[in-house]
Design a protein that fits this description.
Chain lengths: 177, 286
């Protein structure tokens, strides 16, 4: 096995590289998905924080493939695309990664329910942080917290869906040969 | 448990330190970005424009299925109500024809009176239609990306409207895309006039679906139901564009409900009052 692995064809190299950018690529896809209008009344106001879910998921399961640098990059991309104050998204995502990376022992091989339960707290912290940052940068009034709380609840609700899709992608495509 | 050899543990420590250094420097960078963004520099705007221009074609494709489904659902709903709607429309049509006659008479009268007074007409608006391909999403920012940009004559500061009224203002125009800040965004400030008295105020968004009026005169008597229109004070904005209706008016605050709903935005029009050339001529020729 190792002998074959050492002499990889260019195609295999490409495949390995493509696999390695999968978490990043999927995160960008959910970011773009979150931006597309749904035309469903009331939904635009409470669009879930898809990138937060993605960053949290990959921080637990593939910390090697989604580093701080990529987390930062996704945050900047999100801020540029959503028109939010620059830097706020990156700060939120970086701190989310930091929390998960520092609790690796806690998250290691835990059942899904536990990671979801932990996400309840992590996401709350992230929403709170983003709310404060945007309020401070905008310098005027703070966003009414009620709307954000609805968005927070929706984010918790979509976590299982995204986590399921990502875990399918992970077992299907990221499984080491 | 096997003790790690010296080399591996040193490598581990190095990796740990490198990661820690990366984290701290990136956190520093986010604060730097916040300051740069706050200063409203050209670089940030260029970056936003470049990213929007690059991503808009992708978003355009991604928006297609949702738009199709939405159209399909609307069609089904309309199919059910088609008979009653038809009757309503016939009735509305007769009423509107009467109004048309009135409007034509008034327009003629207006033109004659203007000619008598020798007033100069205000600039005619040139409008560009565009599709909405992205909604910033969530309650953190309220802006949309549209498929018209500099190549279509869209420029910063222009008003974005739908048939219902004012939706927002262009804050950044790329080549093939532009971003419109909705009137509900926390950074949106629009000079308006309220009610029949036309009291001046500033409509300030707060990222909720209902923006509020600030700097309202002390003596102004506004009541729920009053119409809010643009005042045109800012310059680029045409006066008299419908914005919304007052829903709450008490000592503490005045809240309005915009005519344009964020989640129904599928096509918008960008009004340009700077370029009067082509349209003014065709309008005159009619």
């Amino acid at each position: 096995m190792t002998g074959i692995a050492q002499r990889r064809t260019p195609w295999q190299k490409f495949e390995a590289r493509a696999r390695n950018i999968l978490p990043f690529g999927l995160t960008v896809v959910v970011l773009l998905f979150g931006l597309t209008p749904t035309y469903i009344p009331g939904l635009a106001q409470i669009t879930p924080m898809y990138t937060l879910v993605a960053i949290y998921f990959w921080a637990i399961y593939r910390p090697d493939l989604l580093s701080y640098g990529l987390g930062f990059f996704i945050g900047v991309l999100e801020d540029l695309l959503t028109g939010a104050p620059l830097g706020v998204g990156s700060l939120t995502l970086l701190l989310t990664q930091w929390v998960v990376f520092n609790q690796q022992k806690f998250f290691h091989a835990k059942p899904f329910a536990i990671t979801w339960f932990a996400f309840v707290f992590v996401a709350f912290g992230a929403v709170l942080l983003k709310w404060i940052c945007i309020g401070l940068v905008a310098e005027s009034s703070f966003t009414p917290f009620g709307d954000l709380f609805a968005a927070y609840l929706i984010t918790l609700a979509v976590y299982p869906v995204i986590a399921w899709l990502f875990s399918k992608a992970q077992t299907g495509l990221l499984a080491e040969p | 448990m096997k003790q790690p050899t010296g080399q591996i543990s040193r490598l581990g420590t190095f990796k740990y330190l490198a990661q820690r250094f990366a984290f701290l420097s990136l956190i520093g960078l986010t604060f730097a970005l916040m300051l740069i963004g706050k200063a409203d520099t050209v670089i940030v705007e260029r970056a936003r424009t470049a990213v929007s221009d690059a991503v808009t074609p992708i978003l355009r494709v991604m928006a297609e299925p949702a738009a199709t489904i939405s159209d399909f659902v609307t069609n089904l709903q309309e199919l059910g109500a088609i008979r009653s709607q038809n009757a309503d429309l016939r009735e509305a049509n007769t009423r509107l024809l009467e109004w048309q006659a009135v409007a034509q008479k008034l327009e003629n009268e207006n033109r004659q009176l203007r000619a008598l007074l020798g007033t100069v007409n205000g600039p005619e608006a040139r409008s560009v239609s565009a599709r909405v391909v992205a909604d910033s999403g969530g309650a953190f920012a309220q802006s949309i990306l549209i498929t018209a940009g500099g190549r279509d004559g869209v420029a910063k500061g222009q008003a974005v409207v739908t048939g219902e009224g004012l939706a927002g203002r262009i804050t950044q125009a790329g080549f093939r895309s532009a971003r419109a800040l909705l009137i509900t965004d926390i950074n949106s400030r629009i000079p308006v006039r309220v009610g029949e008295a036309g009291d001046r105020a500033i409509l300030a968004g707060n990222n909720s679906p209902r923006p509020r009026l600030i700097y309202l005169g002390v003596k102004s008597a506004i009541a729920p139901g009053d119409r809010v229109v643009t005042s045109g004070d800012a310059g680029a904005f045409p006066p008299g564009l419908p914005v919304g209706r007052v829903v709450v008016a008490d000592e503490a605050s005045a809240v309005i409900e915009p005519f344009v709903a964020r989640d129904r935005l599928q096509y918008v029009e960008v009004l340009d009052f700077g370029l009067t050339g082509i349209l003014a001529e065709t309008a005159g020729a009619k």
